[in-house]
Amino acid sequence: MPEPIDLTKIAAGLAIGLGSLGPALGIGLLAGRAMEALGRNPEARGPIQQNMILALAFAEAIAIYALVVAVIILFV
User: Which of 27, 46, 47, 71 has the most crowded Cβ, counting Cβ within 10 A?
Assistant: First the structure.
């Protein structure tokens, strides 16, 4: 007899999968736009790089929140 499907594992997989989709798209768009800005104005490298790194950290934080939710779903 087959083992029943564990819905918590499916929910955790969906949480991390969908929760990482937005930050991944955001990071890709952000890096692309930063490269465009550097290509147009290389003298502004410092402020562009600083703002890009800050925005990347915020986007990664969203993905970490999704990971935390997935772990909570699995173990609670």
Answer: 27
Q: For the domain that residue 23 is a member of, what is the CATH number?
A: 1.20.20.10
Task: Say what the pTM is.
Answer: 0.78
d(CA 18, CA 23): 10
Task: Catalogue the long-range contacts made by 40-44 (C-beta closer than 8 Å, 24 or more residues apart).
Answer: none
Mean of the per-residue pLDDT values of the chain? 93
Q: Scan for tokens 């890096």, then name that residue.
A: 31
DSSP 3: P
Contact call for residues 31 and 52 (beta carbons, < 8 A):
yes
Distance CA 55, CA 65 (A): 16
- Where do the DSSP E strands lie in the chain? none
Residue 26: inside a domain: yes
